[in-house]
Write a structure and sequence with these properties.
The complex is a heterodimer of chains A (509) and B (418).
Chain A lengths: L20 H17 L5 E2 L2 H4 L16 E3 L4 H13 L4 E4 L16 E4 L6 E5 L4 E4 L5 H8 L4 E2 L12 H7 L6 H4 L6 E7 L5 E5 L10 H5 L8 E8 L1 E2 L3 E9 L2 H13 L6 E6 H11 L9 E9 L1 H17 L4 E5 L2 H12 L1 H4 L6 E4 L2 E2 L5 H15 L3 E6 L4 E8 L6 H18 L18 H4 L2 H14 L29 H8 L3
Parallel strand pairs in A: 2-4, 3-4
Antiparallel strand pairs in A: 1-2, 5-6, 6-10, 7-11, 8-9, 8-10, 12-14, 12-15, 13-14, 13-18, 16-19, 17-19, 18-19
Chain B lengths: L7 H10 L3 E3 L13 E3 L4 H13 L4 E4 L16 E4 L6 E5 L4 E5 L4 H9 L3 E2 L11 H7 L6 H4 L2 H4 E7 L5 E5 L11 H5 L8 E8 L1 E2 L3 E9 L2 H13 L6 E7 L2 E10 L1 H15 L4 E3 L22 E6 L5 H11 L3 E4 L4 E6 L5 H17 L3 E6 L2 H6 L9 H11 L15
Parallel strand pairs in B: 2-4, 3-4
Antiparallel strand pairs in B: 1-2, 5-6, 6-10, 7-11, 8-9, 8-10, 12-14, 12-15, 13-14, 13-17, 16-18, 16-19, 17-18
Helix pairs in contact in B: 1-2, 8-10, 10-11
Chain lengths: 509, 418
């Protein structure tokens, strides 16, 4: 039932909808329901058009779904899920399709439920510091709607101009400012949730601390494997009185790391601390001419926000600590245009790497921040030994690394070498007590790494939640977990080595 | 309900699973329900062994941290084994440079604060019940005034280890703040009252201790004024760490806490004072009651108050305060986040308490919130709806069914009879 086998290798295009008669019958039945409820252009069955949806933001996994539906409201979406449940047809929810872990990769024998037509900002209630939005609403549009009232929506993934709130909820998206403000899970208070049976139930609410289990807390970040949200109550945050963005040039990443540590030790919690190394700076310069400090081995982008008088004092301290740790240039920006200029280099970094390398892998791993110098050294060694270039861009404040592993796919074996380095970086993260993903999610891409981070018992326990929500294993099956748990199956006692880890290592990336 | 429910083989199984097993003493009951045995495991392996033995013999288990909130929720249907984790009391790891701390479930919050405070940091959770353990605090999801700036356990917990009903040890999350690998089991365990598993250790993100703080308070004469002042504060640029309301007999006080650098706090306090008018008064001391609940959490069972937790949308504050005035109940809590608490003194009739609960609950639910009877005398718990209506109860039952299919973990203590 899982689609893992269909997409085991890179650029492997999925096959047409399953040939099993029962599956086809199921798809037809769901399509019938969809045609009855949706406008004609909301139901896609032609292979050429289905192909548009064969991948999300991680383009090297591709599967053509059997059916694409685009509901316009919660009732339509729930009816489609109900039909899927009735016929045991797997479904995958997709927001804007910008995810970087293949979380919205379609199922070849399943339905892709696209929420892009559910785009209404239902309510903006400044007096309650809440907005109510549909899942297809673009992240930045929530902020745009709240800004006239002096508020904004804090989680700001780099893709915030195009990514959707529904996708953010599924992935528990972060962003540059989550060091201070937290992730999606800290900003979502309630949701209307479509269960895997197709029922709509409210989770959480406008007020905090809803009684009972925090099901919403489990749903946020579950990558669409527990169900689909059709309306989301988000927290709005007061726009700060002052924001100061500082661009600081250092000779080395070690110096920049030491400056970051000094800030944390001094009790300063900046809104963001971002670091780029020389290669990442080179790429950004080539792409957007961001005019970062010339000859820098590393830059920090530090943002302070809050009450003006508080920011002023913090800034003086940050400036001093950067100088003490070898900064050779500091630029302060306070007005929005100048600040945007500083951020431009950082925000364009992923795409910019395309200027210096024909192909690249965006990795996402986390380490305890204090392990930064050690891990960067190890990444440099990996790069040196393999000849694979790695550009480093990361959220230095919380140890979230985004190494960009560069390669040229036209050279035989280069892709494999890059993948090996990319995987080894994740091993470094795990060795240092970190995580295999800080914000991009596990999805399809990293399911095989899960046993390196968690024991069989840990994964089995997580899947108890899956079994509670989705006993038929129809909601985004094959994602997050390398091996599905048969719900109702009594787990045996696991002893000795982890066979899954070995299997994971053996699997082709 | 008594030691009689444990047969000899079950008793022996628990005995051999754990070095410290005792008969229940007078203080060992769970909201009036006496356990068959009190097991006090020395480490996580013993917790696991006790759970395996309990599983093999079909025994019910109620976890206990420091025993400060054992009467909260509903009384369990049965308590064969009271699983006391107070011996798991270590602060496992304070990585100051990474702003994290890991502690065992039986460690006192106070002790954790001592350790991290030594390095100028804090776990940003108020001690609302003195002496609380880390595990108990998570299981009951307590929070205080500072939740406005730094959130609650769900915003600070980054990793957790639990022992399941079948004895399997499982962890989720880790020791980095940013981590989206796998399901966030910690969220499910927060506020679960011991019904999904036994929490054995937890890892939290920390915050720096602020150099200075200042409270500014102002009297408010009616519910609308309280709401006006609260709205002015939350929409201000003062970045309050807390906005508290204390309400009795139709009037009260709104207080705002500012934390930060010395000079900056002084400046922000001046701004807030100007906003609140000449009546506003500054102080370094918190308003009376501090972070604690407005009832005696240490009272003997026959002296116990009814403690209520009310939540509501921020715009519902005046309606909730008005309902409190009408029902003659005093409130205290976080006006800035829409969470308040009430204590109803013992001695009244169950009907009177029930009427107050109904009236206040109506005000809360009309404004997007809820009311929970946190604690109460036995007759009140028996006579009023403690948890209120719970949406998505069916899904909650399904989660319970997966984690504890035999309903042996704190059975009956939680919502919907879970």
């Amino acid at each position: 039932m899982t689609s893992t086998t269909e997409v085991g290798t890179k650029d492997d295009v999925g096959t047409s909808p399953g040939t099993s008669p029962s599956v086809s019958a199921g798809i037809s039945a769901v399509a019938d329901v969809a045609r009855r409820l949706l406008t004609a252009d909301g139901v896609i069955t032609e292979r050429s058009r289905l192909r548009t949806y064969e991948c999300d933001g991680l383009a090297h996994y591709r599967v053509i779904p059997a059916l694409v539906v685009m509901p316009e409201d919660a009732a339509q979406l729930a009816a489609i899920v109900r039909a899927c449940a009735e016929h045991q047809v797997p479904y995958v929810a997709r927001g804007a399709g910008t995810g970087l872990s293949g979380g919205a990769l379609p199922h070849a024998e399943g339905v892709l439920i696209v929420t892009s037509r559910m785009r209404t900002i239902t309510d903006v209630r400044i007096e309650d510091q809440r907005a109510v939005v549909e899942p297809g609403v673009i992240n930045l549009d929530v902020t745009r709607a709240a800004t006239p009232g002096g508020y904004y929506y804090a989680p700001d993934p780099s893709s915030q101009q195009i990514c959707s709130i529904g996708g953010n909820v599924a992935e528990n998206s972060g962003g540059a400012h989550c060091l201070k403000y937290g992730f999606t899970t800290n900003h979502v208070l309630g949701a209307d949730f479509v269960t895997t049976e197709g029922d709509i139930v409210p989770l959480g609410g406008t007020a905090p601390d809803s009684p009972g289990y925090d099901l919403l807390g489990a749903v946020v970040g579950s990558e669409g494997t527990l169900g689909i949200v059709t309306s989301v109550i988000v927290k709005l945050v007061r726009l700060p009185e002052q924001v100061r963005t500082i661009l600081v040039g250092f000779e080395s990443t070690d110096q920049a790391g030491a400056a970051t540590s000094a800030m944390i030790s001094a009790g300063i919690l900046p809104a963001a601390v971002e670091m780029m190394d020389a290669l990442a700076i080179e790429a950004a310069e080539a792409a957007v001419h961001c005019n970062y400090p010339h000859g820098a081995g590393a830059v920090l982008v530090i943002e302070l926000d809050g009450a003006a008088i508080e920011v002023e004092q913090e800034y003086a301290e940050v400036e001093r600590l950067c100088n003490e740790n070898g900064a050779f240039e500091q630029r302060l920006a306070t007005d929005p245009a100048d600040r945007a200029l500083i951020w431009k280099g950082r925000k364009s970094a992923f795409a910019a790497v395309g200027r210096i390398s024909p192909d690249y892998i965006v990795q996402d791993g986390v380490i305890p921040r204090t392990a930064l110098p050690e891990v960067l050294k190890a990444i440099a060694d990996l790069s040196g030994d393999s000849g694979v270039r790695v550009a480093n861009v990361f959220h230095a404040g919380d140890g979230n690394l985004h190494p960009l592993v560069l390669f040229d796919d036209s050279i035989e074996g280069a892709g494999e070498a890059a993948e090996e380095v990319s995987g080894a970086i994740l091993d470094l993260c795990i060795e240092h007590g970190g995580s295999i993903t800080g914000e991009h999610g596990v999805g399809m891409d990293k399911a095989k790494y899960m046993p390196r981070m968690y024991t069989d018992e840990d994964l089995d326990t997580m899947q108890l939640v899956r079994c509670a929500f989705d006993p038929q294993n129809i909601s985004n099956p094959g994602k997050v977990f390398p091996t599905p748990r048969l719900c109702g199956e009594v787990p045996g006692r696991h002893k000795g080595a982890h066979p899954l880890a070995e299997a994971g290592i053996a699997e082709v990336f | 309900m008594s030691t009689g429910t444990l047969d000899r083989t079950a008793r022996e199984a628990i005995d051999s699973a754990c070095a410290d097993v005792q008969h229940a003493g007078g203080a060992d009951h769970v909201d009036g329900v006496s356990p068959g045995l009190v097991a006090r495991p020395a480490d996580i392996d013993q917790v696991s062994e006790v759970m395996r033995a309990a599983s093999a013999h079909g025994l019910t288990v109620v976890p206990r941290g420091r025993g400060t909130k054992m009467s909260w929720g509903l009384p369990p249907l049965r308590t064969d084994v009271l699983l006391d984790v107070s011996a798991l009391d270590k602060v496992l790891d304070h990585a100051a440079g990474d702003l994290i701390v890991a502690a065992q479930a039986g460690a006192r919050l106070h002790d954790v604060q001592e350790v991290v405070g030594g390095q100028g940091q804090r776990l940003a959770l108020d001690e609302t019940v003195p002496g609380s353990s880390i595990g108990g605090m998570i299981a009951t999801n307590t929070s205080g005034p500072r939740r406005m700036a730094t959130g609650t356990a769900r915003d600070l917990l980054i990793g957790i280890t639990m022992v399941r009903a079948d004895g399997v040890v499982a962890k989720a999350g880790g020791r980095v703040v940013k981590n989206v690998a796998g399901y966030d089991l910690g969220k499910l365990l927060i506020g679960s009252f011991g019904t999904l598993g036994v929490i054995t250790d937890a890892t939290f993100r920390l915050h720096p201790l602020s150099d200075a703080h200042r409270w500014v308070s102002v009297a408010v004469g009616d519910p609308d004024e309280a709401q006006r002042v609260t709205q002015a504060l939350i929409h201000s640029q003062a970045v309050p760490a807390a906005v508290e309301v204390d309400w009795a007999d139709g009037h009260g006080t709104v207080s705002v806490l500012l934390e930060g650098r010395e000079e900056a706090v002084a400046g922000r306090a001046r701004t807030v004072s100007e906003l609140l008018g000449p009546e506003a008064a500054g102080s370094v001391d918190p308003p009376a009651g501090g972070a604690t609940y407005p009832w005696d959490t240490a009272a003997q069972p026959d002296q116990r108050s009814t403690g209520l937790k009310l939540t509501f949308a921020l715009s519902g504050l005046s309606a909730v305060l008005a309902a409190a005035t009408e029902t003659g109940v005093s409130l205290r809590g976080s006006a800035g986040t829409g969470v308040a608490y009430a204590g109803i003194e013992p001695g009244g009739t169950v009907e009177a308490v029930g009427a107050a609960v109904t009236s206040l609950r109506r005000a809360c639910t009309q404004h997007g919130g809820s009311l929970v009877v946190v604690d109460a005398p036995a007759d009140v718990k028996a006579g009023v709806d403690v948890w209120g209506a719970i949406p998505a109860l069916d899904l909650m039952r399904r989660v319970k069914e997966q984690f504890d299919p035999d309903h042996r973990l704190a059975p009956g203590r939680f919502v919907g009879g879970i």
